[in-house]
Design a protein that fits this description.
By secondary structure, the chain is mainly beta. The protein has a single domain, classed as hypothetical protein yedk fold, CATH 3.90.1680.10. The protein is about 5% helix and about 45% strand. The protein is built from one helix and twelve strands, in the order βββββαβββββββ. Strands 5, 6, 9, 10, 11 and 12 form a six-stranded mixed sheet that branches. Strands 2-1-7-8 form a four-stranded antiparallel sheet, with no helix packed on it. The chain has a two-stranded antiparallel sheet with strand order 3-4. It is globular.
């Protein structure tokens, strides 16, 4: 899972209502999209902030016309089992992999997750996918 990101010195946290994330466009510009869908909200979108890579590969996101994207960040935050924040800094040129889902012309961005690397399993069992 992913609970927040830092980008250009500003925190974007999943717990915040109407939180948006930056999406790097092919022309190098940044577009801000609503992050996922809140739990308990009646919506055609998947509830939650993340999309599991294995679910994407299995075709479970096909109905959303998924588009892979890069989410620019300085660092990202996970919460451990005690709900304490755990921040991870990324190298220059690294991004979180995102998936843009579209329903009736409206879009949401989800953070793509994979099994947590061994070094981080003490924090969470799911982990954001970092790409170059």
């Amino acid at each position: 899972m992913c609970s927040g990101i830092e980008y250009l010195g500003k925190m974007h946290l999943w717990r915040d209502v109407d939180v948006t994330l930056p999406v790097l466009m092919k022309d190098g510009s940044i577009r801000w999209l609503k992050w996922g869908e809140r739990h308990g909200v009646q919506s055609a979108f998947v509830q939650g902030p993340c999309a599991r890579l294995d679910s994407i590969q299995a075709g479970k996101w096909q109905r959303f016309n998924p588009m892979p994207v890069k989410i620019p960040i300085t660092r990202y935050m996970e919460r451990n089992q005690k709900c304490a924040p755990y921040w991870v800094k990324v190298e220059d040129g690294q991004y979180l992999q995102g998936l843009v889902a579209t329903v009736n012309g409206e879009q949401r961005v989800y953070v793509v997750t994979v099994d947590a690397p061994q070094a981080f399993r003490h924090v969470q069992d799911r982990w954001p996918r970092v790409i170059g």
